[in-house]
Specification:
The complex is a heterotetramer of chains A (509), B (354), C (634) and D (282).
Chain B lengths: L21 H8 L2 H28 L4 H6 L6 H10 L6 H13 L13 H36 L4 H15 L2 H15 L13 H35 L2 H8 L4 H39 L4 H10 L3 H29 L10 H7 L1
Chain C lengths: L2 H4 L15 E10 L7 E11 L4 E6 L5 H9 L6 E10 L2 E2 L5 H7 L4 E4 L3 H4 L6 H8 L5 H5 L3 H18 L16 H12 L6 E5 L7 H18 L2 E6 L2 H7 L2 E6 L2 E7 H6 L4 H9 L56 E2 L4 H4 L28 E10 L6 E11 L4 E6 L5 H8 L7 E6 L2 E3 L7 H10 E4 L13 H11 L8 H18 L16 H13 L5 E5 L7 H18 L2 E5 L3 H7 L2 E6 L2 E7 H6 L4 H10 L1
Parallel strand pairs in C: 3-8, 3-9, 6-7, 7-8, 14-19, 14-20, 17-18, 18-19
Antiparallel strand pairs in C: 1-2, 1-4, 4-5, 9-10, 10-11, 12-13, 12-15, 15-16, 20-21
Helix pairs in contact in C: 5-7, 5-8, 8-9, 16-17, 16-18
Chain D lengths: L3 H4 L12 H23 L30 H37 L1 H15 L3 H11 L4 H28 L2 H8 L4 H37 L11 H8 L8 H32 L1
Helix pairs in contact in D: 2-3, 2-10, 3-4, 3-6, 3-8, 3-10, 4-6, 5-6, 6-8, 7-8, 8-9, 8-10, 9-10
The structure holds adenosine-5'-triphosphate (ATP) (2 copies) and magnesium ion (2 copies).
The site of one magnesium ion has 3 residues of chain C, from helix 2.
């Protein structure tokens, strides 16, 4: 069957009609336990929440900041951001959105225990400075903050709702309250979430009236459900499964900006020796992984930041050229052996590598790496842990070798560079990486307001860090979306699923 | 002949024995003392199980407070809050007491993962799982019993071997494998049943959605029941009273239903507790395969995410269910078999004392 | 009970114009399963029963009595099949009838009443229900009733009538079998068997599982029913006394063949087949004591081990070569209705009648026990209480008894009177609640089983032989191993060195086997291939290995056939003489008591009610139970 | 079902000791044993990867195709017999040992021992083994051995009951009491006389437990609670490869079939043994 082009961002994708769709059922590969992304910040949770709740700003399918509940925003100085609220926007319970609601939502995101708190750590104050005006002040200048009040790190609910359901937002009883294109009508964990078009939404009325997202964890069942017509498609299909869907559905693969990498703790043996890190880099057959494990539905990564992340800062050709300069470390056991021989750990060593159970492809990559390392005399013991356990262990210094599996929530490369390469980011800098050139470039980028210049600085930081190999980037992943032939998702792109994606699902023309 | 001897064990034991009428008989079949003893036994069993369930939080490696916090950041404040909430600083016995008291009052704590009330979470899923288990049980009964009886009646003949082999295959097929096969055949190839979920129509739709899962669930149990029934039937057929009934011309159908099958009731119902345990265990796999939001899926995900309060609550619920099933079979047995009735005036003994 | 046979109306034994009720000719039954199949189990059995006639079939265990009856009703056990012959019921050949038609005959033409009243009735159905199930639906009383209630009432009334017929009240209908005594159950079973008003009732050892008092009552009942209803009766039994006293004619079955048949009186007084003669001789008499019981040597051949000729040829004193080649078939009827299967009948015809062969009686020792030293066993005021609370039950109450050294004391009493309990207390298998027990001077403590040194001391002084020959030996160990273990436990294997020990053991085992009359090569045999009598011999040898001062035999011969029982009783008497141990012999058979015992103790409901020298107790019984038993044994 | 079955004249059938089915089962069981013991020697590089091949359909060098890491499915299935069967055998044997020790003690010694053992067995027998293992092994930090240990404990009450009732059946037989009367010690009587007579049913039951444990353990590995990732284990393989419907369905079918076949074979053998032993006893 004809397969859509891998990257739909070029705008050649099909367009749909406005024929109304009464009900659309899509399969999700696993269940949600909470709809509240500040409690459970998985990608599937975003898929639902972004339909129901909005943020101050929105992200366009092509990765640009757009008006959301704020119609305009400005940055009077490097540390101050001012947002003007849309008037007439209402929550699905009928109440109008006020500055109080926005402030309460931001406070909820900042609160201790919230999964989003990290993004708001640099905020000094949030105030209503006018009837419909919110002013946020930062502790230190940070150009990347512009992306923080977007759906990835802030979803707005009403103050009353948050107060009433403190600690219980997003359960089957309380559901969610938002201003978005859809409202949740029912949520049964392990079964489904059902959404209904929100007639009072300020945007264009979506075609799909009722949207049901069914959780079908078993791959076989999921496919049979599609073939027997019980579902109209699936989101986030695992790569190994996607091909078997191609006979019954249109499967779209789009880069989802996520990256999988190995993080070496450069402060400790054996990875304090760059030769060991290089030996690993040569040993890992990354193109083999992409071909075998990911069935070609991914791209070998040369750095943490995927090319789609630069959209707002640098144009494509510049990115291409910049990435071409990064060292390649093509798979070669011979080279790996040679590097290891140069290190202080010629005779090999043994260590553990854990992967989250929600990412079996990471496990397989680990097994492939372990197989290659065996030839170097290095024993890699692969272990499966729960996602929560893996996240809890994702702290610098915990383990010498770790998987980094990251889904950026913004369209700004600094989201990755600031967290994972800056020596000051002690909570996230897994390799204990310290490079004054890199730190310097990152600091300058924070205060730099010029887009191109920021891009140049950030790209430079990546290039500076690359030879040191604090991370071994493995691949940039793609997400597979399958839809029955009579439906189409307009404007599929790297940012397609960040906003109210269901509003762009249409009947095929 | 020898009139000076009391009629020991003699058939003519002259004294007429007052014979209770039918209704009184039913009453005496289950005297309250027996019921009370069974209830006490069940309570004791439940108490032991509840201690085991309570101990689960201690089983997880590390600090229980951290376990109860889950993956949330363990700030001193948060830890203290959890300690207070679960009274972790009190002696174990007191903790257990509080926990049990709360549980009895329906307060099973709060889910670590979602923050939702555990009672509410369980409540929603309970109904579905009970429906699934009952349907699975019905399937097992409808298939396992007749096949078992057939196999028993035709023991060691071809039809018995076939039935037995089918039972063994059912018993040996893990639910995930069997489920996938059934989905493939009945929903994809034949399109008779939906492949997943609970459906959103009424009771009829729900039933339609639960048929395949129930069959999958019932399959393994069918194997167990078939085996039990077959063995019981063979044993019964071998009994002298069956031969005697046939030898005196009791109609064949009566012999089969009243003599043979009647005798299998007790051994088969004894297996019911076992069967329930099987069924409950099966829901884990079946709910996973058919994407059903029941207790089984909840258990797997709660275990995977170490959502200890939910796991505890669920374990307690299952323990209670099993105790209940055992109680029911215990109370059914004396109704089915008069010999098991506690007989305060067993004539045999009474006569000896007379 | 002899008067019963006199009451028979000779005219009734004629087949009458309808022909015989049951006519079995040349019935062959084979075993189809198992090693060496097919094996012939029944080899040409003939059996005829006229209307209103009562016929007994006697034979030792395994002779095929039950198989014959099962073949007649068409309910052969699994693994066996009819291989030839004919079975006619009321003139109609039934062997080739389809199963449905055959089933229709059951209950009307013929009904089977089985042995064990404890297993014959369904435990979960009321007695009334079970009787009602067998009623013919076309009974006038039932057919007349219309409507559920009326039918149910009619059925109840009919059941009550049937119960009354067997001497039970209507309330029995609502009771479950476990609420009744054994005798009552057998009565209910009889009522159920007769519910279909059969023309012929076959009762397969209906009294074996009952105690003596009930046995008599049930036999009387069956005889009465047979006469009142004018039906045919086949009574299967292994008890010659019962057969002769309660039936018109007797068939003697041996190893799957009928060897002799004739009227009870003729057969009892003048048996013609050597086997029948031997059987009658081996029966211990309650009146006289013999020097030795005449025995039939050897034991019943197992199916498959029988030659082509007369199955009894190997044990027969008069066997000639012709016996081993000519199959045993009944000769044509003699004028008095007798039939014999002995090929040499004509040659042996003028031998003296069997009972006269036992003329050599021995005067019963009337001397009292020698009171030289401590008795081999002494009970003093022994109590044994089982259970607690409402279930409390005193099995043994204040029993004082001693067994003198070197003498045989018989302990008799009805079933459940506490005999076994006493025996088990004496060997330390059971505890006693109060009183004093001393075994060969070793005192036992009440309330707990002896352990350690006390146990060893007890083991050296007393041993026991149990009733059931089939469980008396560990099925996995051969005879030699069993005996070696006993020798080693008794400390008799004292040679040093493996080889020396093995040699000593082999010698001692051979000696023991010789003592109990078994060939030495039996040491290599597993119990599974031994006959019941041989097993009991090995059990005795095991007990002898310890050289006990006291041997307890708990109904050790009760499960054996008469011919084998006689052998074992003789063996015990010989051994006692040579080894000099005392014997506590538990039995309920007063004939056996007369043969073997010096002293007798009678138990009744847990109490010792009578004791004294055997001759005195048997000739002048004082207790009512003893008197009743003696009366029944005559 | 017709009522005719009752009235059919019995005794026509001839029974052979070993039916062809039993022989086939025995042969398969033998193959399984060989695979479990020697499988990893027969295919020393069963785990060899080939990322470039990836998941491939059966054919060519790979009889059953390959998985995503390019490992040969056929070799993995053979080599995986060890992991799957060893754990299950451990469960069956462990349960047999516990069953024998406690069953003998309870049945022969009686008294308080019996009461305690019986209560214990009743308690455990009521529990759904798979759920308890899931909970304990899951909460307790996973681990194959923990799961096996829990399964041993939860399987044993069946064995305990079986042994106990078999011992009770033997306990009052005359040969046992005769041995006691000879003054032999209780342990001797228990071990030398009773136990050998009880053993056959235990062995038959161990087969059945073995089969049950295969299903239970593969269910656990299917849920991710069993062996380490990448290890050749049937449940694990099935879980990891079941999405390869398009690329190589046999990657999932082969281990599934291996599980079912070995469980079926062992169940049938166990049943057959039971039949033979109970025939022999009667
Ligand atoms: N189902 C069977 N399969 C094989 N042989 C059998 C079967 N039933 C009985 N036999 C054999 O047939 C022979 C006769 O058995 P039957 O039961 O008729 O003896 P019996 O005279 O009734 O003995 P008893 O006095 O012990 O009841 C015995 O040797 C027995 O072993
Ligand atoms: N272990 C026991 N528990 C309870 N009651 C028992 C036990 N053993 C024997 N009895 C009872 O004790 C009484 C005497 O039994 P015992 O076996 O000594 O009688 P018996 O004279 O040997 O009878 P039989 O002639 O039937 O062998 C019976 O009523 C029996 O039910
Ligand atoms: Mg018999
Ligand atoms: Mg007794």
């Amino acid at each position: 069957s004809p397969q859509r082009k891998d990257d739909g961002a070029d705008g050649t994708a099909a367009r749909g009609t406005d024929t109304p769709v009464d009900k659309l059922t899509l399969a999700l590969p696993s269940s949600l336990s909470s709809l509240d992304i500040s409690r459970e910040a998985g990608i599937l949770n975003y898929l639902v929440a972004a339909l129901v709740q909005e943020s101050l700003l929105a992200v366009s399918p092509t990765g640009e900041l757009e008006p959301g509940l704020a119609t305009s925003w400005k940055q009077p100085d490097a540390k101050t951001y001012v947002y003007t609220l849309r008037s007439g926007a209402t929550f699905s319970d009928g109440a109008e959105v006020t500055t109080d609601d926005v402030i309460a939502s931001i406070e909820a995101a900042r609160a201790e225990g919230s999964a989003l708190a990290y993004a708001w750590a640099n905020v000094a104050s949030v105030k209503a400075t006018g009837d419909r005006e919110i002013t946020i002040r930062l502790k230190t200048a940070d150009a990347a903050f512009a992306w923080t009040p977007t759906p990835g790190t802030l979803l707005i609910s009403s103050k009353a709702f948050l107060a009433e359901n403190k600690g219980k937002v997003g359960t089957a009883k309380t559901l969610l309250l938002g201003t978005g294109a859809y409202k949740v009508t029912s949520f049964v964990p392990d079964d489904h979430v059902q959404l209904e078009r929100n007639g009072d939404w300020w945007g264009d009325t979506p075609s799909v009236r009722t949207l049901k997202l069914s959780f079908i964890p078993d791959a076989g069942t999921r496919l049979v459900a599609m073939k027997s017509g019980s579902v109209d498609g699936a989101l986030n299909l695992p790569s190994d499964e996607a091909r078997s869907w191609e006979s019954t559905a249109e499967v779209t693969y789009t880069g989802d900006r996520s990256v999988v990498a190995l993080a070496f703790d450069t402060a400790k043996a054996p990875f304090d020796d760059v030769h060991v890190r290089r030996a690993f880099a040569y040993a890992a057959d990354r193109s083999g992984m992409v071909r075998g494990i990911l069935h070609g539905k991914a791209e070998v990564a040369s750095t943490l930041v995927s090319p789609q992340m630069w959209g707002a800062l640098l144009d494509e050709s510049k990115v291409k050229r910049g990435y071409a300069a990064l060292p390649a470390f093509d798979h070669s056991i011979k080279a790996a052996k040679a590097e290891l021989a140069k290190s202080r750990h010629k005779d090999g060593f043994s260590l553990d590598l854990s992967y989250p159970n929600s990412g079996p492809q990471l496990g397989k990559a680990a097994l492939a790496l372990a197989d290659a390392l065996k030839e170097l005399g290095i024993t890699l013991k692969v272990k499966e842990v729960t996602l929560e356990q893996w996240i809890a262990d994702l702290v610098p210094g915990k383990k010498p070798l770790q998987f980094l599996w990251y889904f950026p929530v913004t369209g700004d490369p600094a989201e990755l560079t600031d967290s994972y390469l800056a020596s000051a980011a002690s909570a996230t800098n897994l390799p204990h990486y310290e490079n004054s050139d890199v730190d310097d470039a990152l600091a300058r980028a924070k205060t730099e307001t010029g887009k191109a210049e920021r891009g140049r600085l950030l790209l430079g930081a990546l290039q500076d860090a690359a030879p040191d190999l604090p991370y071994l980037p493995l691949w940039w992943a793609q997400t597979a979306t399958a839809l029955a032939k009579e439906y189409v998702l307009e404007e599929p792109g790297a940012f397609a699923l960040v906003g109210p994606w269901a509003t762009r699902v249409k009947k095929t023309a | 002949m020898t009139a000076e001897l009391p009629a020991t064990g003699a058939p003519f034991g002259g004294r007429p024995v007052p014979v209770p009428r039918l209704r009184e008989r039913l009453g005496t079949a289950l005297p309250w003392r027996y019921v009370a003893r069974r209830l006490a036994g069940t309570a004791a069993l439940l108490a032991v199980l509840s201690v085991a369930v309570f101990a689960l939080v201690r089983l997880a490696p590390g600090d229980p407070a951290r376990t109860l916090l889950g993956a949330r950041s363990a700030t001193p404040d948060a830890l203290a809050a959890v300690r207070a909430r679960y009274r972790l600083d009190e002696p174990l016995a007191a903790q257990y007491g509080h926990w049990l008291l709360d549980a009895v009052h329906g307060d099973l704590g709060v889910s670590i993962r979602t923050g939702a009330d555990v009672t509410a979470v369980l409540g929603d899923r309970f109904a579905l799982t009970v429906q699934l288990v009952l349907l699975g049980f019905a399937v097992a009964l409808l298939v396992g019993l007749p096949l078992g009886v057939l196999a028993g009646l035709r023991a060691r003949r071809a039809s018995d071997r076939v039935a037995q082999s089918l039972g063994v295959v059912a018993l040996s097929t893990p639910a995930f494998a069997g489920g996938l096969l059934l989905i493939y055949v009945f929903s994809l190839l034949l399109g008779w049943f939906p492949a997943y979920g609970t459906g959103d129509g009424g009771a009829g739709d729900r039933l339609l959605h639960l048929i395949l899962p129930a069959v999958t669930l019932g399959l393994a149990v069918t194997g167990v029941l078939l085996k039990l029934t077959r063995a019981a039937v063979i044993r019964e057929l071998d009994r002298e009273h069956v031969t005697f009934a046939r030898a005196r011309g009791v109609p064949t159908r009566t012999v089969l239903t009243r003599y043979v099958l009647r005798g299998t009731v007790v051994p088969v119902t004894t297996g019911i507790g076992l069967v329930l345990a099987y069924l409950l265990a099966g829901t884990v796999m079946v709910e996973q395969v058919y994407a059903l939001p029941g207790l089984g899926q909840l258990l797997v995900s709660s275990v995977t995410f170490r959502d200890v309060p939910v796991v505890q609550a669920e374990a307690l619920l299952i323990a209670a269910l099993i105790c209940l099933a055992n109680l029911v079979t215990d109370l059914l047995h004396p109704l089915a078999d008069p010999r098991l009735r506690p007989a305060p005036t067993a004539p045999h003994r009474a006569k000896r004392q007379a | 009970m002899a008067q019963l046979s006199e009451a028979t109306d000779p005219g009734r034994t004629d087949a009458g114009e309808r022909g015989p009720l049951l006519d079995v000719r040349g019935l062959r039954v084979i075993a189809t399963a198992g090693p060496g199949a097919p094996v012939t189990l029944l080899d040409g059995v003939d059996l005829r029963v006229g209307p209103g006639e009562s016929v007994a079939v006697v034979g030792e265990s395994g002779s095929g009595k039950s198989l014959t009856t099962r073949a007649v009703v068409g309910l052969l056990p699994e693994g066996t099949a009819v291989a030839g012959g004919s079975v006619r019921l009321g003139g109609e050949e039934v062997l080739h009838l389809p199963e449905r038609a055959r089933h229709a005959l059951r209950g009307r033409r013929v009904t089977l009443l089985m042995q064990d009243p404890f297993t014959m009735l369904h435990p979960q159905l009321t007695c009334g229900r079970q009787i009602a199930d067998g009623l013919r639906p076309d009974l006038p009383a039932l057919a007349a009733a219309t409507g559920r209630r009326a039918r149910s009432a009619a059925r109840r009334a009919e059941v009550a009538a049937r119960l009354a017929e067997v001497g039970l009240g209507p309330e029995t209908a609502d009771r479950y079998p476990h609420e009744l005594s054994g005798g009552m159950r057998q009565r209910v079973a009889a009522a159920a068997a007769l519910a279909g008003d059969p023309e012929l009732l076959i009762a397969d050892e209906p009294t074996t599982a009952l105690d003596a008092a009930n046995q008599q009552a049930v036999l009387d009942l069956l005889r009465g029913l047979q006469r009142d209803r004018g039906m045919g009766l086949v009574l299967i039994t292994h008890d010659l006394r019962v057969a002769f006293s309660s039936c018109d004619r007797v068939y003697v079955l041996y190893a799957g063949s009928v060897l002799e048949q004739g009227r009870s009186a003729d057969l009892g007084k003048n048996p013609q087949h050597p086997y029948t003669q031997g059987l009658l001789l081996a029966e211990p008499s309650v009146r006289e004591r013999y020097e030795r019981l005449p025995v039939i040597p050897g034991s019943v051949p197992a199916p498959g081990g029988r030659g082509p000729g007369c199955p009894f040829a190997d044990r027969c004193a008069h066997a000639a070569p012709v016996c081993r080649t000519t199959p045993a078939r009944l000769w044509p009827e003699e004028p008095d209705g007798r039939q014999n299967a002995c090929v040499r009948a004509a040659d042996l015809g003028d031998r003296p009648a069997a009972p006269r062969l036992r003329a050599t009686t021995l005067p019963q020792e009337r001397t009292s026990a020698p009171t030289d030293d401590t008795p081999a066993l002494r009970f003093q005021g022994v109590h044994r209480v089982f259970g607690s609370g409402a279930q409390r039950h005193t099995a043994v109450r204040d029993v004082s008894l001693s067994v003198a050294r070197g003498r045989v004391t018989a302990l008799v009493g009805e079933s459940g009177s506490g005999k076994t309990t006493l025996a088990r207390i004496a060997v330390g298998l059971e505890t006693f609640s109060a009183g004093a027990v001393e075994v060969g001077g070793v005192p036992l403590a009440p309330g707990r089983r002896p352990a350690g040194a006390a146990r060893a001391a007890l083991a050296a002084r007393t041993q026991i032989v149990f009733q059931d020959p089939y469980s008396s030996l560990n099925p996995l160990r051969n005879v030699g191993a069993t005996l070696r273990e006993a020798l080693s436990a008794a400390g008799r294997l004292d040679a040093t060195g493996r080889r020396a020990r093995a040699g000593q053991a082999a010698a001692l085992v051979a000696e023991l086997l010789g003592q109990v009359g078994l060939p030495g090569h039996y040491a290599d045999r597993r119990p599974g291939v031994l006959s019941g009598g041989e097993r009991q011999r090995v059990a005795v040898a095991r007990a002898l290995a310890v050289r006990p001062e006291l041997l307890i035999c708990d109904e050790a011969v009760a499960a054996l056939d008469v011919s084998v029982q006689a052998q074992l009783l003789n063996l015990l008497a010989d051994l006692r003489r040579t080894e000099g141990f005392a014997v506590l012999f538990i039995t309920h058979d007063l004939g056996v008591v007369r043969q073997i015992a010096d002293d007798v103790a009678v138990m009744y409901r847990g109490e010792l009610v009578e004791r004294g020298p055997a001759a005195e107790v048997l000739d002048r019984p004082r207790h009512a139970w003893t008197r009743r038993m003696l009366a029944a044994a005559d | 079902m017709t009522t005719d079955t009752l009235t059919e004249a019995p005794g026509r059938r001839r029974r052979r000791r070993f039916s062809p089915l039993t022989l086939v089962c025995a042969a398969v069981a033998l193959l399984l044993a060989v695979a479990a013991i020697a499988g990893q020697w027969i295919f020393p590089d069963y785990g060899a990867q080939d990322l470039l091949t990836g998941a491939a359909m059966p054919g060519g060098a790979h009889l059953l195709g390959t998985d995503e890491l390019g490992r040969d499915i056929a070799q993995m299935v053979v080599a995986g017999a060890r992991s799957t069967l060893a754990g299950a055998a451990l469960v069956a044997l462990g349960s047999m040992v516990i069953g024998n020790v406690l069953g003998l003690a309870a049945g022969y010694l009686g008294g308080l021992t019996d009461v305690l053992v019986r209560r214990w067995a009743d308690l455990l027998l009521a529990l759904p083994a798979l759920l308890v293992t899931l909970v304990v092994a899951g909460i307790g930090g996973g681990g194959y051995l923990l799961a096996v240990a829990v399964l041993v404990v939860l399987t044993s009450p069946g064995d305990v009951r079986l042994v106990r009732s078999a011992v009770l059946e033997q306990r009052h037989r005359a040969y046992v009491e005769a041995a006691e009367t000879l003054g032999l010690s209780r342990t001797t009587v228990m071990v030398r006389h009773i136990w050998p007579n009880v053993l056959p049913v235990v062995v038959a039951n161990t087969m059945l437990n073995f089969a049950g444990a295969i299903v239970a353990l593969s269910s656990l590995s299917f849920l991710g609670l069993g062996v380490l990732p990448g290890a050749p284990d049937w449940g694990r393989m099935l879980a990891e490869n079941r999405t390869l419907l398009y690329d190589n369905p046999s990657a999932a079918l082969a281990p599934a079939l291996a599980i079912v076949v070995s469980a079926v074979v062992l169940n049938l053998l166990g049943d057959r043994l039971f039949e033979i032993f109970s025939d022999r006893r009667s």
